[in-house]
Amino acid sequence: MRIGLQIPVFKWTGGGAAIGTTLARIAREAEAAGFYSLWVMDHFFQIQMVGPAEDPMLEGYSALSFMAGVTEKVKLGTMVTGVTYRYPGLLVKTATTLDVLSGGRAYLGIGAAWNEEEHNGLGVPFPPLKERFEMLEDALQIAHQMWSDGHDAPFNGKHAHLARTLNSPQAVSKPHPPILIGGTGEQKTLRFVAQYGDACNLFIRMGDDVVRHKLDVLRGHCADANRPYTDIEKTSLDSFLVGTGDGALSGQALVDNIGHAADLGFDHAIFSIQNVSAPGVFDALAAVRDQIAAIPEGGRK
Predict the structure, then answer these.
(1) By CB distance 3.0 to 4.6 Å, which of 34, 51, 177, 231 could disulfide with 106?
(2) What three-state secondary structure class fits 206?
(3) How many CA atoms within 13 Å lie on the side-chain side of 55?
(4) From residue 296, how far is each of 127, 180, 267 by CA, in Å?
(5) pLDDT of residue 301
(6) Closest to 190 in 3D by CA, of 216, 209, 169
(7) What is the CA radius of gyration of the chain?
(8) Contacts with 163 (C-beta within 8 Å, 6 or more apart), sequence order
(9) How many CB atoms lie within 10 A of CB 244?
(10) Of 248, 231, 228, nearest to 240 (Cα)?
């Protein structure tokens, strides 16, 4: 079973001047503890479910590039980029650059975008939901075209119009960096996963029955698209304390938590650690890394 670390908070001891050194330490220690992937949100303000908008937030691809420079093997991705934030051709070029400079370690995490507050705050247009999904489909098609052998050609979608989808150098990952599509919508999002994606992401907090239902919906969309369901990497998202004390997970509790995600049908358990900047927090995970690695992936049986 693969595990990934999401880092959604940068409000750490020492303020802004210490964020770089703390983030570098976290990235290196997570890799050493056996994490397969590192993820940051692609937001510009802190999101309301996590903290006030004024809390520190880093631009996603800059943070990933920084972490690529202090690690060697761990995969890197956004959880997830709102399609409205960057022109789609430039987004694919940005993800390609991360993949090339990291030696083939990038994911392209993408979704339809939702945070109207930061759009308004920074002057980014926030179209209606229907239009954002049209933009998302354009971006997914552009990614496939730019990462294909015959990529240097025009593209004309519903909203995006590119005269040349030139992408040089090409990505190191083959056939291309995995495309993770975030969201749980059954009619469009999960259909896009089956048509264009390599990975999905579902919240564990939705509950076991809802998660199983969403995965069944994805299975149906894969059948409609004539695509093997096992082609899709199923990733989960969760959050917890690690270590000792009330509500904290350690040792066998960590193994059981990740094993439950596998039982639900996931291949890759991604989670944030609420005390991630605390010294020694990764020791508990390092101690059970072999047990976690031995858990069979649930979605690719």
Answers:
(1) 177
(2) helix
(3) 15
(4) 42, 21, 8
(5) 63
(6) 216
(7) 19
(8) 154
(9) 10
(10) 248
> Which residues have a Cβ under 8 Å from the Cβ of 71 and sit 6 or more positions away?
27, 28, 31, 38
Torsion sign, CA atoms 106, 8, 60, 278: negative
Residue 10 has φ and ψ, to the nearest 5°, of -125, 20
What's the mean pLDDT in 127-131?
98
Q: Is the pTM of this model over 0.90?
A: yes
Q: How many helices (H) and strands (E) does the chain have?
A: 10, 11
Q: Average pLDDT of 99-116? A: 98
User: What's the confidence (pLDDT) of residue 244?
Assistant: 76
Return the number of other C-beta atoms located less than 10 Å from residue 250's C-beta. 17
Question: How much is the mean pLDDT over the chain?
Answer: 96
Q: Which residue has the tokens 């210490």?
A: 18
d(CA 172, CA 169): 9
User: Is the confidence at residue 243, as pLDDT, over 90?
Assistant: no
Residue 11: per-residue pLDDT: 97
Is residue 55 scored above 90 in pLDDT? Answer: yes
**Beta-ladder partners of 254:** none
CA 104 to chain centre: 16
| Lookup result for tokens 């650059």 | 97
Domains of the chain by start residue, with CATH: 2-293 (3.20.20.30)
Each residue of 176-186: pLDDT tens digit? 999 999 999 99
Mean pLDDT of 281-297: 92
